[in-house]
Design brief:
The complex is a heterodimer of chains A (117) and B (188).
Chain A (H helix, E strand, L loop, with lengths): L2 H11 L7 H10 L9 H52 L4 H4 L6 H10 L2
Helix pairs in contact in A: 1-2
Chain B lengths: L5 H4 L3 H9 L3 H23 L3 H17 L9 H27 L18 H16 L2 H11 L5 H8 L3 H21 L1
Helix pairs in contact in B: 2-3, 3-4, 3-5, 3-7, 4-5, 5-8, 7-9, 8-9
Classes of the chains: A mainly alpha (117), B mainly alpha (188).
């Protein structure tokens, strides 16, 4: 088809409210059509499912991480509770001083150490 | 997926959607096979016949796959896919426009890279090249309307539904696009 005829056909196909199927078919026959490569579908499927698999791997890692974190956190909380109970039992209170193992005579004893008297 | 799964060749779109959501690869492969030409027309028509357009075509189907569970069948699957294709392509044009505006005065819609196999008949190749070149020079907002008509064969009403625009706007864009196209074609 000559260039000028093709141009006319393009302009004509853009007229009106409804498309003229016959004009569109003629246009397609001249070569005005587009397509993807033959392996397009396979490429799409590969991209989707490989992304899903790596997503699953990430999920496995996250699950393992949280599981380990919870175990460590629970053990830590249990250790803190035990420590507080033992402090309360040995010191008779739960003040900051008792928590740090500092008794009533702390100020005097530290002065003795510092001054040597 | 060169070979089609015979199980799904006769299946309707909703059956394919259901099976795809349940993780059936071949069902989704069938959806891609059915609508890849339609997506190619939109994406390649908007961006030119480039390898990059093919990557964007893949993005369209990946986005479709990720949103399939939200598809209720209120509209046709083809309309749903077409909407995704149009949105992705227009976003890409905007992104290019922003990127190029940082470095040059180009508006980003002027993409003349044409990648057509050599083995193709010269006359057919010339015809496609002519349409591609002309379309790339039309304003993207008009271009998308022209493609819906010229390459997809949609009516004004269908185009309005896909683009989410009033019919009047589509008609005026079609007429302005046609005017632009006429001027551009004169110079080619």
């Amino acid at each position: 088809m000559k260039k000028e005829k093709l141009k006319e056909l393009i302009i004509e196909s853009l007229s009106g409210d409804e498309p003229d199927r016959d004009l569109l078919r003629q246009l397609e026959e001249t070569g005005v059509s587009y397509s993807f490569s033959n392996d397009f579908t396979q490429k799409v499927i590969n991209r989707i499912y490989s992304a899903e698999q790596s997503g699953n791997k990430n999920n496995d890692f996250t699950r393992l991480f949280y599981k380990t974190f919870y175990r460590i956190a629970i053990t830590g909380i249990a250790a803190i509770i035990l420590l507080l109970v033992s402090i309360y039992l040995s010191q008779g209170s739960l003040t900051i001083d008792s928590f740090f193992g500092l008794g009533d005579g702390f100020e005097e004893s530290i002065l003795c150490v510092l001054t040597g008297n | 997926m060169k070979r089609q799964d015979p199980k799904y060749v006769q299946a309707d779109d909703m059956e394919l959607v259901k099976a795809s959501v349940e993780g059936d690869k071949s069902a989704f492969g069938e959806i891609v096979n059915r609508y890849k030409t339609m997506v190619a027309r939109t994406v390649k028509g908007m961006l030119g016949d480039t390898v990059f357009a093919e990557d964007l075509g893949q993005e369209v189907f990946i986005k479709l796959y990720n949103s399939l569970s939200e598809f209720r069948g209120d509209s046709k699957l083809s309309t749903y896919i077409q909407k995704i294709a149009v949105n992705i392509t227009l976003n890409e044009i905007k992104r290019r426009k922003r990127f190029l505006s940082m470095f040059s005065h180009s508006d980003g819609s002027e993409i003349h890279e044409i990648d057509i196999p050599d083995s193709e008949d010269i006359e057919r190749r010339d015809a496609r090249e002519l349409v591609s070149k002309a379309l790339q020079m039309v304003d993207p907002n008009f271009r998308v309307v022209l493609i819906m008509r010229l390459l997809q064969g949609y009516s004004t009403k269908e185009t309005a539904e896909i683009l989410g625009l009033p019919v009047g706007t589509v008609l005026s864009r079609l007429s302005r696009g046609q005017e632009q196209m006429r001027k551009i074609l004169k110079g080619l």
